[in-house]
């Protein structure tokens, strides 16, 4: 960079997991980006992320799935949730076991109707996930990673955005980045969102909490090999860190104004009802559980992504929502930058992703209320049998796959490969016709500059399980259009999927 100014197609604010995935998604489509983050090192107290099957499928496209599994919880290890009304020395009220990856693999081995996931879910340390993704970003030739840069503001100037940042490694020095688009991936307290003055619509009045990250060999020994992923103990939620370092995190509700940082260990001991032995406090964070979603995800050329757009309870498995945001915005920005996408393509980002966040918020709110009700009933002296009965009524079986509506059926071909792995990076027209009827459709799309692969499939398994002969699959593996025959107005379909207004008919 010469002087204190530089240019970029896309400026991504935040090099956490979401910002990194967005940068890698853009690069997947040949679009360069600049990523800035005020932190030189990845976070050291991040929560464990649960990546559902669809999230792992999306990351598989970016060739990240194998590396994430190598850093995650082993395939042989089951998870679980323990509900306890009293201290750790009392038996749990209810134990819910989450099957291991090996168990899931066996469960799906004979599912051949297209509904089985290509990738199984994965639990992984948030620290390891963020570190690995940041390393991938740092090594990618299309991504300019600038650490130690604190984003401070922006203004829209015609068709460009002028962003400012402070480079802590150079003085500090003021830096200017002129860019076409800005993506705010800077978390729940997003500076980008504050610059846009976009309010967050909260579901409930905020309740104050804190999270205490700590190391406790004694607690690890207490559970031994059967250590659950999560322990809900009255008003305390305790999560195990699978990093081999005896680390845990406790989420506790606190009264407004409580000096949490004064003695966080005392809070833990009171919540656990158990002597912790030697305990090392690693970090303490405070937050509220307002369960808020931004009223808008976009202001002109500036977008909100991940937790800058939706702030959920930390133990609400928010990763899938955020990863979906990053992938969706990434391929749509690439379409516009590469010249084939119209204005409607970017409008569809908020139209698709905000309703998903609102639905996910309701599910998180339900889980949170179940935990609160359990804590209240336990404090009121409810019997173990009564508590267990309430939990069984309120806790629905989990969907292991978490596959979204509209996702193309996943089928393993006769040669053992996955159909998904044959899809192109942009649009793919899967052609199951006898006469390759999709060829002229793909050529018409390419003449308009829309990148589209033509995948002719003769495999009987696919022909049996896909309900249409021509299926157009989006870059995120969701179905954009399908029919048995070529449409009367293919241009109208192309207008719709590329974000251009439908052409006027004479």
Automatic annotation (TrEMBL):
InterPro entries, A to Z: FAD-bd (IPR002938), FAD/NAD-bd_sf (IPR036188), RIFMO-like (IPR050641)
Gene3D superfamilies according to UniProt: 3.40.30.120, D-Amino Acid Oxidase, subunit A, domain 2, FAD/NAD(P)-binding domain
Residue ranges annotated for the FAD-binding domain, each copy included: 7-357
Keyword terms of this UniProt record: FAD, Flavoprotein
Pfam family, one: FAD_binding_3
Flavoprotein in keyword set: yes
Name this protein carries in UniProt: FAD-dependent oxidoreductase
Originating organism: Cryptosporangium japonicum
Lineage per the UniProt record: Bacteria, Bacillati, Actinomycetota, Actinomycetes, Cryptosporangiales
């Amino acid at each position: 960079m010469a002087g204190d100014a530089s240019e970029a197609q896309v400026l991504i604010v935040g090099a956490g997991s979401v910002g990194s995935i967005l940068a890698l998604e853009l690069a997947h489509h040949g679009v360069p980006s600049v990523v800035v983050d005020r932190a030189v090192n990845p976070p050291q107290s991040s929560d464990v992320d649960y990546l559902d099957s669809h999230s792992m499928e999306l990351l598989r496209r970016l060739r990240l799935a194998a590396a994430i599994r190598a850093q995650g919880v082993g395939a042989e290890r089951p998870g679980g949730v323990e509900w306890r009304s009293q201290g750790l020395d009392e038996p749990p009220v209810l134990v819910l076991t989450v099957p291991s990856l090996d168990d899931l693999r066996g469960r799906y081995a004979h599912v051949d109707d297209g509904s089985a996931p290509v990738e199984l879910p994965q639990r992984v340390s948030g620290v390891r996930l963020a570190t690995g993704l940041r390393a991938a970003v740092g090594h990618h030739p299309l991504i300019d990673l600038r650490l130690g840069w604190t984003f401070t503001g922006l203004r829209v100037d015609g068709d460009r955005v002028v962003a400012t940042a402070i480079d802590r490694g150079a003085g500090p020095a003021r830096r200017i980045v002129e860019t076409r688009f800005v993506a705010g991936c800077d978390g729940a307290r997003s500076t980008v969102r504050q610059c846009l003055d976009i309010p967050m619509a909260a579901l409930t009045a905020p309740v104050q909490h804190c999270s205490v990250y700590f190391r406790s060999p004694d607690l690890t020994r207490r559970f031994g090999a059967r250590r659950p992923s999560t322990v809900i103990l009255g008003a305390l939620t305790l999560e195990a860190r699978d990093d081999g370092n005896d680390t845990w995190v406790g989420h506790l509700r606190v009264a407004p104004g409580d000096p949490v940082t004064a003695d966080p260990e005392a809070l833990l001991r009171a919540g656990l009802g158990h002597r912790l032995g030697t305990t090392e406090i690693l970090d303490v964070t405070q937050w509220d559980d307002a369960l808020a979603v931004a009223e808008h995800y976009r202001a002109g050329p500036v977008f909100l992504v991940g937790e800058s757009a939706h702030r959920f309870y930390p133990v609400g498995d928010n990763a899938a929502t955020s990863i979906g945001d990053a992938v969706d915005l990434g391929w749509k920005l690439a379409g516009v930058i590469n010249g084939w996408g119209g204005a409607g393509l970017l409008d569809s980002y908020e139209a698709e992703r905000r309703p998903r966040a609102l639905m996910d918020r309701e599910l998180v709110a339900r889980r949170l209320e179940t935990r609160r009700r359990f804590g209240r009933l336990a404090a009121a002296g409810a019997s173990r049998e009564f508590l267990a009965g309430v939990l069984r009524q309120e806790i629905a079986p989990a969907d292991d796959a978490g596959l979204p509506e509209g996702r193309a059926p996943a089928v393993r071909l006769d040669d053992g490969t996955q159909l998904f792995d044959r899809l192109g990076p942009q649009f793919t027209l899967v052609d199951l016709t006898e006469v390759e009827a999709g060829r002229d459709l793909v050529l018409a799309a390419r003449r308009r500059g829309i990148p589209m692969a033509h995948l002719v499939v003769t495999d009987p398994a696919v022909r049996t399980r896909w309900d249409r002969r021509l299926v157009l699959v989006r870059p995120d593996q969701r179905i954009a259009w399908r029919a048995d025959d070529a449409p009367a107005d293919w241009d109208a379909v192309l207008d719709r999927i590329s974000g251009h207004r439908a052409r006027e008919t004479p």
